[in-house]
Amino acid sequence: MAETTDRSIGASEAPAELSAPTSAYRPLSLLALGGFGLSAVFTLVVAVGGGINLFGRTPFLLPGWSFLLPLAALIVCWAARARILASENTLSGTAFTTWGLRLTIVVGLTYAAYYAATFFAVRGSAVEWVDGFFEQIKQGNYERAFALSSGESVKDMDANELRNTIESRYNNSSGQNPGRFTQFRQSQFVRFIQIGGPQTKIEPLGVSEWNYDKGGYRVGMRYRITAPLGSLEMQVVAFGPDPRPGETKGRQWQVQLTKGETNVLKETLAWTPRGEEVIQVAGSAGEFARSWAEKVSEQQLADAYLDTLPLAERERLRQGQMSARWMATAPFSGVASLGLCDAVCREYLNAAEKLSEAKIIRIDPARFWATPLLKAKILERVEKTFQPSAGRPRFVLTIQPSMPRIQESEGRVTMAFDAIVRYMAEDSPTPQYMVEGQLVVEGLGAANGPPAWRVVALEIESGRSPPSMPAQQQPPESMIGAGKP
């Protein structure tokens, strides 16, 4: 009996390590730990950014390269999981890969949805605003288009108030350069739209970049402008600042244009065959316009008058011009009484007076702008521009190096070149008033051979006091026609 009891006790008191099953140690996969770490970092970044967005009212937009982080987390977790399953139960860390994949997918999809919703909302608003900017240019509402590019609120302004605001705030000249509004109207893409008129097509090509910077969204877009004479592409940046606290009008966008012509992508400019012909013709028209500007600046008004006549009439008076020049070199007096100056010669000698009768200067009172203090004085000076002899003001007419306004109609082409007239003070060569407008020339279309250009009008649009010029930049006496008949 005792023996049996002893054997029973001995068996029940055997060491635990001999009776329990053995379990081998499995090391943790460092790849799984790394994948989970990447997903945890991405989750933390998104959570902090979401908190800033919620409490700071600042959008949380990660840079594009940051999307590599969740992608790397997915790849590393997936690779770690595959390695663990292929290790025949010798590696651990499956739970880390599971949580890493779950965190990355859930957080990544949530952020991607937020990013996409923000992008499409911002893009839609910016494109709508820029489309409206181009439409204003197409309709000829240049002041409203410029206001959209300057951030000026013009919603409740009428046409006169808007013009006064733009001219007084944004069109003051600097040295020899015109003001910002004038430069905007003379820019290549504006003229391109203007030339095409209703036939111009403007289409967005997509968003090249977008971000949140300095209290607002900045969206870079590319547009194609197609007109009958050619096409070009340009880069436009729209900036939409955040509304101020209490404002209910929403985000007001601003079309940001760089200085000069850098908005237009030069390599994309392509002319149609007809466009190439017109541009070539514009070169000769520009030379003619500059030549005429030099003539009137030097007070050669008789020759300037000939350039306002049709070609046949101009050639007829050229004969009188030759006789008049021969008379000027004749070594005796009384040549006219000897019959050497015929009716055509006498008509040419009166040509300077006829220039004032030709009504070359055109002013639309409803369109002309100047400050109330200067308007009457400037108009009086302009009206005397081609006045015969006494009382004629001294001035310099210059043609601006910008793309002309081109119009074709019934076999004729008309080109309007941007011009500036600087009227000198009565007692000095210093400019007293500066007037802006266009010199309009007309000729036969290029299809009928080389055009015979003639001056049609000098259209005046605005006037102001010029900026002060250093002495070395003031026009020489020879350029203001002092004392020339």
Summarize this entry quickly.
The chain has helices at about 1-10, 15-20, 30-55, 70-85, 95-140, 140-150, 160-170, 180-185, 190-195, 275-295, 300-305, 310-330, 345-350, 350-355, 375-385; strands spanning about 200-210, 215-225, 230-240, 255, 265-270, 360-365, 395-400, 405-410, 410-425, 430-445, 455-465.
Tell me about this structure.
The chain is an alpha+beta fold and 485 residues long. It is built from 15 helices and eleven strands. The chain has helices at residues 2-12, 16-19, 30-56, 68-85, 94-138, 142-150, 159-170, 180-186, 188-196, 273-297, 301-306, 311-328, 343-349, 351-357, 375-383; strands at 201-212, 216-227, 230-241, 254-256, 264-271, 361-363, 395-399, 405-409, 412-424, 431-444, 454-464. Strands 6, 7, 8, 9, 10 and 11 form a six-stranded mixed beta sheet that branches. β1 and β2 form a beta hairpin.
Q: Which structural class is indicated by helix and strand composition? A: alpha+beta
Straight-line distance between termini: 155 Å
Order of helices and strands: HHHHHHHHHEEEEEHHHHHEHEEEEE
Question: Count of DSSP E strands?
Answer: 11
How many helices? The count is 15
Q: In the CATH hierarchy, what is the architecture of the domain at 274-301 and 355-479 at level 2?
A: Roll
Question: For the report, how would you describe the main beta sheet?
Answer: 6 strands, mixed
The level of helicity is 40-55%
Helix-strand layout with pairing:
Blueprint: H1 2-12, H2 16-19, H3 30-56, H4 68-85, H5 94-138, H6 142-150, H7 159-170, H8 180-186, H9 188-196, E1 201-212, E2 216-227, E3 230-241, E4 254-256, E5 264-271, H10 273-297, H11 301-306, H12 311-328, H13 343-349, H14 351-357, E6 361-363, H15 375-383, E7 395-399, E8 405-409, E9 412-424, E10 431-444, E11 454-464
Parallel strand pairs: 6-11
Antiparallel strand pairs: 1-2, 2-3, 3-4, 3-5, 7-9, 8-9, 9-10, 10-11
